[in-house]
C-alpha cells in the first residue's frame, strides 16, 4: 500500500510539473558553465533515481519507502554542490572588475522557498510529536505503533512514525539541509565566469536555475515524507475508538494540509526536472 501511495503521489507530481515548470529568464552563463552545471545536476538526478529505487526495495517494513524521496533530493543537492564547485573561470585576463553584493534572496523562488521552509518546519514538529508518542511493537521494535487505552480495553495501531521511522528520516533530511546550505553558499559566492574575451558574464539566470533546483530538491526532501507521515498519523489517530476530540481535530487538519503539500511537491518535481532548452546567451558587462 505504501508503494502504491508513493507511485500515485509521484505520478500526480509529474503531471503538475508539466504545468508549473518554467525556467527562469535573464542573462545566461557561457555555454561551458551551463554545460558543467547541467551535467552534474543530471548526474545527481540519475543517482537519486537509483538510490530511491534501492531504498524502496531494501526494507519491507516501510523505512525504505519513507526515505526514498529524501534520498532522491539528497542526490540532486549533491549534484548541484559538485556542479557549482566545478565551475571555473575561463583562462584570460579580466577586463572588467565586478564590485557587487549578491544576496541569496535574489536567486531563490519568491514563494516556493518560504513554502519549503514551512513544510520542513511542519515535518520537524510532526516527527517530534510522533516520536514522543510512539511505542514498541510486538517484536520490541521501538516507535512502530501508537498505543491507546480505553475504559474497557487497550490496543495499538501501526505503522506509526515513531523512532523506528523518524530517526533514519531525520538523518537523511539533516544531511540534505547541510548540502542545501553548501549549495546555496556556492551559488551566491562563486565568482562571475569569464567569456573568451576575458569579460565578466552576469550569469544570474543560471544562478537562479541552481537556486530553483536546490529549492526543488529540498521540497522533495520534506514534502513526500510529510505527506506519508501525515496520512499514517491520521489513520492511527482515527483507529482509537475512544479518542479525544482534539485527536479528531488533528486528523482533519492533517488531511486538509495534504493538498497543499501535494501542490508543493508538484512544483518541487518541476523545479528539479525542468530543462531550459533555449540556446545559451553570454551577456557581458560594459567596460567602465
List the helices and strands and how they pair.
Blueprint: H1 2-20, H2 31-58, H3 63-86, H4 112-133, E1 146-149, E2 154-157, H5 163-189, H6 204-238, H7 245-273
Antiparallel strand pairs: 1-2
Structure write-up:
Helices cover 64% and strands 3% of the residues. It contains seven helices and two strands; from the N terminus they run ααααββααα. The protein has helices spanning 2-20, 31-58, 63-86, 112-133, 163-189, 204-238, 245-273; strands at residues 146-149, 154-157. The protein has a two-stranded antiparallel sheet. A hairpin with a 4-residue loop joins strand 1 (146-149) and strand 2.
Beta fraction of the residues?
Answer: under 5%
Strand order of the largest sheet: 1-2
The total of beta strands comes to 2
How far apart the termini lie comes to: 64 Å
Helix percent reads 55-70%
Largest sheet: 2 strands, antiparallel
Q: What is the general shape? A: elongated
Give helix and strand order, one letter per element, not per position.
Answer: HHHHEEHHH
Helix/strand/pairing class, anyone?
mainly alpha
**Number of helix segments?**
7
* Low-pLDDT regions: 17-21, 89-95, 275-288
Number of domains: 1
Based on CA atoms alone, the radius of gyration comes out at 22 Å
- Rounded average pLDDT: 75
Q: What's this model, at a glance?
A:
This protein is mainly alpha-helical and 288 residues long. The chain has 7 helices and 2 strands; from the N terminus they run ααααββααα. α2 (31-58) runs antiparallel to α3, α3 (63-86) runs parallel beside α5 and α5 (163-189) packs antiparallel against α6.
Amino acid at each position: 500500500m505504501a508503494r502504491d501511495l508513493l507511485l500515485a503521489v509521484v505520478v500526480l507530481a509529474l503531471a503538475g510539473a508539466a504545468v508549473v515548470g518554467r525556467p527562469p529568464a535573464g542573462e545566461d552563463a557561457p555555454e561551458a558553465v551551463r554545460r558543467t552545471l547541467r551535467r552534474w545536476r543530471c548526474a545527481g538526478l540519475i543517482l537519486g533515481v537509483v538510490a530511491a529505487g534501492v531504498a524502496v526495495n531494501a526494507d519491507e517494513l516501510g523505512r525504505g519507502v519513507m526515505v526514498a524521496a529524501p534520498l532522491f533530493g539528497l542526490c540532486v543537492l549533491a549534484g548541484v554542490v559538485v556542479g557549482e564547485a566545478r565551475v571555473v573561470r575561463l583562462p584570460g585576463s579580466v577586463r572588467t572588475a565586478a564590485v557587487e553584493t549578491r544576496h541569496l534572496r535574489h536567486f531563490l523562488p519568491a514563494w516556493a522557498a518560504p513554502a519549503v521552509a514551512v513544510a520542513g518546519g511542519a515535518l520537524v514538529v510532526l516527527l517530534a510529536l510522533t516520536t514522543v508518542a510512539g511505542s514498541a511493537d510486538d517484536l520490541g521494535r521501538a516507535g512502530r505503533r501508537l498505543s491507546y487505552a480505553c475504559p474497557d480495553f487497550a490496543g495499538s495501531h501501526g505503522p506509526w512514525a515513531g523512532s523506528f521511522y523518524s530517526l533514519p528520516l531525520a538523518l537523511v533530511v539533516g544531511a540534505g539541509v547541510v548540502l542545501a546550505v553548501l549549495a546555496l553558499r556556492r551559488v551566491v559566492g562563486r565568482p562571475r565566469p569569464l567569456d573568451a574575451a576575458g569579460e565578466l558574464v552576469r550569469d544570474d539566470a543560471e544562478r537562479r536555475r541552481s537556486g530553483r533546483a536546490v529549492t526543488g530538491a529540498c521540497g522533495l526532501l520534506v514534502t513526500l515524507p510529510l505527506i506519508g507521515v501525515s496520512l499514517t498519523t491520521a489513520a492511527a489517530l482515527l483507529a482509537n475508538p475512544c479518542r479525544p476530540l482534539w485527536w479528531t481535530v488533528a486528523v482533519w487538519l492533517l488531511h486538509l494540509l495534504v493538498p497543499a503539500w501535494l501542490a508543493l511537491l508538484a512544483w518541487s518535481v518541476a523545479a528539479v526536472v525542468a530543462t531550459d532548452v533555449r540556446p545559451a546567451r553570454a551577456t557581458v558587462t560594459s567596460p567602465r
